[in-house]
Amino acid sequence: MTAEDYPDGSTFRRIVDEAQLHAAVQRIAEGIARDYPHGYPLVVVALLKGAVVFLADLVRRLTMPLEIELVSARSYSGTQRGPVVAVQDDLSRLGLAGRHVLLLDCVLDSGHTLHSVLRSVLSCEPASVRTCVLLRKQRERAVSIEPEYVGADVPDVFLVGYGLDYKNLWRHLPYVAELPPGLAGE
Ligand code: 5GP
Ligand code: MG
User: Fold this and answer.
1) Does 18-155 carry CATH code 3.40.50.2020?
2) Active site residues
3) Which residues approach ligand 1 with their CB closer than 6 A?
4) For position 37, what pLDDT does the model report?
5) Which of 42, 137, 138, 171 is deepest in the core (most CB within 10 A)?
6) pLDDT tens column, 47-63
7) Domain-by-domain residue ranges, the chain?
8) Burial level of 23, CB count in 10 A (0-12/13-18/19+)?
9) Helices 52-59 and 18-35, interaxial angle, to 10°?
């Protein structure tokens, strides 16, 4: 089987349906509203491309002043010690010094990505940083990172939909599904 055998993803096993996603986003938004009551502009930094759907849904449930920034990070198997994550963008251009930053990703898997981007954000000397993931895979993590906001725990399978892709496909599915295992090894 190849990706072309699955034109619309409708047969994929659903992991988190639309209603569950909306409830998870709402819970996260309520937590953020509680934690940032002061009215200063928040800088929401989202990771491309996976977090864009989550970002769009989340920010429309937030009422405090906020700015949106998008950054790319790429992970690749660099050394025996595990994947290297490169932040593709120069974060210094964002002017995060002294700002309150909320770092957003769609899914926490090994933890390398968020950990590495968090380090880069911290080096910009923001006033505060919190991290937020919509989905957290239930697995051992290579690096220790506990996001302040988590939408839902999910099984350790390869996920597509709601921003997550396989070969850049299926990001637009309104639910999160498991990539058919026969495709994953392709
Ligand atoms: P980590 O660095 O925590 O292992 O993985 C985080 C990044 O890997 C995410 O930003 C996402 O781009 C990608 N990723 C991790 N798990 C999945 C998955 O199940 N499906 C997809 N499409 N991407 C994933
Ligand atoms: Mg991807």
Assistant:
1) yes
2) 109
3) 47, 50, 75, 105, 107-113, 158-160, 164-165
4) 79
5) 42
6) 999 999 999 999 999 99
7) 18-155
8) middle
9) 60
Per-residue pLDDT for 80 more than 60?
no
Residues 69 and 77: their CA atoms lie apart, in Å, by 27
User: Tens digit of pLDDT for each residue in 20-51?
Assistant: 999 999 999 999 999 997 878 999 999 999 99
| Residue whose CB lies within 8 A of the most ligand 1 atoms, among 72, 87, 107, for a mutation test | 107
pTM, to two decimals = 0.93
- The DSSP bridge partners found for residue 164 are 161
Cα dihedral: 35, 37, 42, 44 (round 10): 40
Query: Tokens standing for 167?
Result: 């070969």
